[in-house]
Amino acid sequence: MLTRTKKTGSVLLTALVGMMVITSACSDNKNNNQGNAAEQTPAAGNNATGTNDAPPADPMAKYDPPIELTTVAFEGEKPEYPAGDSIDNNIWTRAYASDLGINVKNLWVAANTPEVRDQKMSVTIASGNLPDVMHVTAREMQMLIESGQVEDLTDVYDQYASEGVKNIMSYNGGIILDAASYKGKLMALPDTTQGGGTDGAPMIWVRTDWLDKLKLSPPKTMDDVMKIATAFTNDDPDGNGKKDTFGMALDKNIYDGFAGVQGFFSAYHAYPFNVNVSMWQKDEATGKLAYSGIQPQVKNGLIALNQMFKQGLIDPEFPVKDGNKVAETVTSGKVGLMFGQFWNASWPLNDLKKADNKSEWMPYPLVSADDQPAKSYVETPVPSMYYVVKKGYDHKEAVVKMLNYYYDKIYGEHAESDKFHTVTENGKKIQVFGSATIQTFTMDTNVKAHELVTEALKTGDTSKLNDEFLGYYTQMKEATAGTNLTGWYLNPIFGENGAYEVLKNYNANNLILSNEFYGSPTPTMIEKGAFLKQQEIEAFTKIIMGAAPADDFDKFVENWKQLGGDKITEEVNEWYATKSK
Amino acid sequence: MVRYKSSSRRLFEIGNYAVLALISVLCFFPIVHILAISFSSSSAATAGKVGLWPVGFNMKSYSFVISQPAFLKSLGVTLQRLLLGVPINMLLGVLAAYSLSKETKDFRFRTVYVWLFVLTMLFGGGLIPTYMIVMKTGLLDSIWGLVIPSAVNVFNVVLILNFFRGLPKELLEASFMDGANHWKTLMRIVIPVSLPVLATVTLFTVVFHWNEWFSGLIYMNSPQKYPLQSYMQTVIVNKDFTRLSVANLTLLAEVSDRTVKAAQIFLGTLPILLVYPFIQRYFMGGIVMGSVKE
Amino acid sequence: MLKLMKKELPLHLMVWPALVIVLIYSYGPMLGIVIAFQKYVPAMGFFKSKWVGWDNFEYLLHLPNIWQVVGNTIYISAMKIIAGLIVPIVVALLLNEVRIHAFKRSVQTLVYLPHFLSWVILGGIVVDLLSPSTGLVNQLISWFGGKPIFFVSNNHWFPFILVSTDIWKEFGFSTIVYLAALTSINPALYEAAVMDGANRMRQTWHITLPGLLPVIILMATLSLGNVLNAGFDQVFNLYSPVVYQSGDILDTLVYRLGLIDYQYSVATAVGLLKSIVSLIFMAGSYVLAYRFANYRIF
Predict the structure, then answer these.
(1) Per-residue pLDDT tens over the stretch A541-578
(2) What are the backbone angles phi and psi of residue A368, rounded to the nearest 5°?
(3) Does residue A537 sit in the same domain as residue A576?
(4) Closest residue in chain A to residue B222, using alpha carbons only
(5) Residue B165 and residue B105 share a domain
(6) Where is the chain membrane-spanning (chain B) (predicted)?
(7) Considering the domain boundaries, does residue C16 fall inside one?
(8) Stated pTM of the model
(9) Option in B214, B245, B250 nearest A486 (CB)
(10) B88 near B153, Cβ under 8 Å?
(11) Per-residue pLDDT tens digits for B238-277
């Protein structure tokens, strides 16, 4: 699953606007076929979930007479639908109606721009015209729960959720459901398409054609990283005779999914992260939670970054360059190493490949500065979005049924992904899963893609691949053969030694450190968190740039504790105490 | 007007032209840069290699932008908004400015009124209360929601009233002597001699309605009703990218974010550039007042 | 008395359409200012949210660095107000001397162009232009033998960069206003001046500038309404932690503290404070002009 920070997300996704011109020839024939096929599916669905330890209710029983369910929707700039479909009438709305007896109605549809989404939601919430079902952020969920505007879903989840769904939700010791609970009651359904797995764990991306050129080997230790970065800076890897390259990419956010330094700090067993005082680790000595950004190991990481900065291995202009700008230095071939997440290959590295087809990048697992293995850390172990049901809605179990239905159609034993996930129309592939009101995601899909596709590439046997995976396979083959480079990025992601192999090994070797705190922000966190974070970024940036001595870190820690940090630590540990019981 | 030209005058003029040309170049340069990006290949644009001339010239971004039905549709909404909004703004603005341009002895409440207007430039309620009012007055999801709440621009009213006050008193007195009332005086005398300021304010109003995008995104209930600039804002989409999609990434290969954005920015500015010269005719000094004097 | 009322009636009628709009859509939402004194939660509404008195204001005043930020805000906006007055006047006067109509019109159009670009776009261009390694400006400096300056992360330079790029973007807008004002100066005055042998310089000083004075005063007064708005979009797109010291303004601070997104009440409190300060400045200049020059600015 591709998860990324909101900022970098919008960068790439801007380009992902659909170019497909859908012929408007509407075929009634086709719609009828879809309807018929859909009607046959409930039986299959029941079989798939039949092995459950006897759920007292049929997880996908059809309402008769049909019920109405209102919601609100956000739509991308150029949403793609098969001919004749729209956000109000598509395979999912028709299937909900015919199979579940649920008529879904959008009260409004708005463009899915990050700037506007939150405001559109808050005016809707403030105006009091809530739809029956809403897809909300963790903060919005918290607010709605506290003001008593959403239904308790505990009973209906227990009664109706299918085995497959319960399986997903129990991932990572059930913390996903915890995050959607309030005082022991389940108040929302987590949207596992929006984070919650370990896919976002950082790794090292290195430009391997430069490694070859300078006769270097991939990094195994932090010293190797420094050596590579130094060589990439000083030994003219692009061969233009000018000293115009940098060793490591870094953007002004310091922590980021691309060109951030979370993975860098891991080498020093330090785990700072950016959003409001959010990263907490367990202090083994006391058994309590401690804020990652003030641990003494962080200072070692900062000293190392400052050394790199002094030696010119980092672009001295990094404090004013956001992800977009840094991406420019990467795509113009000026930098050859960075810490980032698995999707970096699709953006921005694929752009570089288009401009310079000799360029090659590969991801490598994080390295350590000493003999202890480096651990990748995941700041958001729980999803960022949730589904809530308006207080007083008569059919609250409907959301669980719709969740079951989605799982059944996409991941179930009798999944119909060519109908509900990606439809092929006139030779074009159109994704339709996005029209589903309630969605979910199994955390191992991408790892599975990696395993199956890698194997198929070795054996040439594609019989195990579904439509989606077969698409990767074809593109990866073409890219390797050099006939079509557009799918180049799939190799470093799904191919042999690719990003998913790195992630798989992290998980297998227990090298992932999850944020221990996943409750809602504490009162002092809300009040002081942003301010403390600002102090942190300011202090760290200055230390990295050498504008302040490394010892200022100690001063920052002192201040942090005094200006509310101690209070927050207290509150976080109160939360932790209730969790560990 | 000035016939003789001393050598120092000549020197000044040369310097003047040079300075103004330099300033214009400085102001012109960013849009040229954007134009160059819009015509460049995506790889050159994302690598930051484009300066003032396209690299890897192509028109894909433009054909992409124009090929979308939503583009033309939203352009239609914007034109509708301009046709409704600009006349309403001008009408309300000119009427209010005319009365407020009277002196206190002729219109005792003017100062109270003026301050009632001016205060709204300083104090605002914020997004949520404004939304509630628009909702309560039934303007949500309607073109009027883009026109009515912003129908009075106080800055423009104050600007017009200031110009009205500067008109020669004799002009108005003569009109009243002839038996004309306020309405007639406004229509027949004041407006015709105030064309420069009215042209200026019309320009500002057109630009405002053209550029304003936020209310469209917040007040409309479906993207089909967005005006052009609201639609353009949505170019920065946070698309559901939870799964890798073959189809999407093929598109990524063809059009980069930056070139499309650049094309949209340019297309979004172009109509104003075309309108401007027409409005400018009214800025040419001296003509109007000269005719008034006779 | 009744006669007076009757005489003024048409004038009232002319104001009312605009006034009704303003009363509904500007004064109506102002009732929402009450949330500055609440702990407002959208889901609770104005009536159920908790009243907290002056808490939100106290929270603001107790923020560390708040006075430095207020200082930055005033310093930057004051420079912007002054430069924003002078530059457009000078350009308008220079344009007024131009006799080639095509040139005049082209310049007018071109200087208005940056106004149409958002700071997201312009910010990127500015950072590129000022880059110490590749930026045009620093290349010029090096060419003249100077040392490259990292303008955007230098606390000494940052406020000036803000002011000059703001002028660059916006001066075309005000220039248009002054150009329109120039048209209302009676040409007879110039003719008389020429008779008296006054050169262009003297004409500008004695006729053009006094003719522009009402508009200049008006624009100056209106710009005082922005005394605590130093330009969020611009600062946000150009600053970095290194220049918080010189470039952090009220609006960016409020934004970073997450107040805009979730703490509606504190954000409203900030807005209210800003409005009141602006009001004091504007009302002050209005009263001064009336007292000492017997002139009503608007």
Answers:
(1) 999 999 899 999 999 999 999 989 999 999 999 999 98
(2) -115, 155
(3) yes
(4) A109
(5) yes
(6) 82-100, 112-131, 143-164, 185-210, 262-279
(7) no
(8) 0.84
(9) B250
(10) no
(11) 333 332 333 344 444 444 467 888 888 888 888 878 888 7
